[in-house]
Task: structure prediction
Amino acid sequence: MSEALTAAIQVLPDYLGQHIMLSAAALGLGLAISLPLAVAASRSPRLRWPVLALASLIQTIPSLALLALFYPLLLALSALSERTFGQGFSALGFLPSLLALTLYSMLPIVRNGVTGVLGLDPAVIEAARGVGMTNRQRLWRVELPLAAPMLMAGIRTAAVWVIGTATLATPVGQTSLGNYIFSGLQVENWVSVLFGCAVAAALALTVDQLLALIESGVARRSRWRVLTGMGVLLAGVLAAVVPQLTAGPTGYAIGAKSFSEQYILAELMASELRAAGQPATTRTGLGSVIAYRALANGELDAYVDYSGTIWANIMKRNDTPARATVLHDMAQWLRREHGVRLLGTLGFENAYALAMRRDRAEALGIRTIADLAQHAANLRIGGDFEFFARPEWQALREGYGLRFAEQRQFQSTFMYQAVVSNEVDVISAFSSDGRIAAEDLLVLQDPRQVILPYDAIVLLAPQRADDAALIGALEPLIDNIPIELIREANYRVDRDTDKQTPRQAADWLRQHMN
Result:
């Protein structure tokens, strides 16, 4: 058995258990909301259109966007709750995922419920009235039993949708089978990606077949089919959820954004804590702004960010002072505004950079971004999902007068593949990325120093700012990771053959630090 598959199987109980817990809770809440709405909409033509239109509108919102949008909303509500009642709640992970998935589950249940009730033979309804049934009796004894097959079809559809969409909860901090997919895409571990997809598909198919058994039991008035289907479903949910709910404290929570280097550094920090006798877990795949907000709100204890990201995105500064000034002003601002402590730099910089295939750059005589500007009108540029919305891109455009023929966005793994395969000519690379060496790319020099310094910095949450155990475990990392070491660690994860997992790369890095 390959190491990648072994590593995937080791974390399966946790990922699967959390995925089932989230999906079951969302589907259960969706049923609790949708069934009364379906009954009310079938009774009232005035209510019917708004309910169905709203449920349909929700489906037009991209699922990842809906998951992300709930995070700032819940943050605001948590802050309001803390001011009003003295107690906030976690806006990261389970709650935003639960609310988004609940909304996604509603359309098929509501629509099929309304269609099932309205599609009944009017003669049957009239006969029920004729024998003196009240509206409530008619609903429970006639309409719902006859509409049950159509309603169950909607529930089956909703269950499959929820289980599939739950894989997208990873970027908002909820562990799920999506962790396999997101981390696998970032480090090009296709075994992890396929494993996550296969387990999610198997789970969806299993639930669908159990619901089909219940559906056939309702249609045939077979009690054993209904009880068997419900019993197996309930047993499966309990088997997955109980270990999650009864699990002990997980210790320090170390965050990571969604690229290889972040996975490696999170594992490195967690391993330093464990070596010091402190329990630690990692929460990976977080969006850039979400990671910082989670730290500032105490939902993470520590993570690595980059000075340029904090300076431009969090502090909203558009000037470019010297590195020492950036770090000094940043440390004071973080502590004053959010209580976040900048523990120190790790010793290397991971700056945004523009990179080209070496042979392509040499053929055009390009070595700097100033050289690139002379050819940009005939070239295509690719960036990751956030690059073209960042201040760095605006600064580069204005500082060098860059105007490209075409601008495209990629997931970072495919961005590198795009430049290698000549889909684009230039990409927004990262200066410490192992894929630069792996693909023999040329990083273009920035003679006008437009790009901000991007020192890797360790940030501590407000409640951990003076935590002696955490600081003692992480201080040996400060100024102790040369750029050559992190590039090699990144390369070990990103290379085409003999790939290592982020944990293996972190172990290698730990062994080779001074």
Remarks:
- The first strand starts at residue 252 and ends at 257.
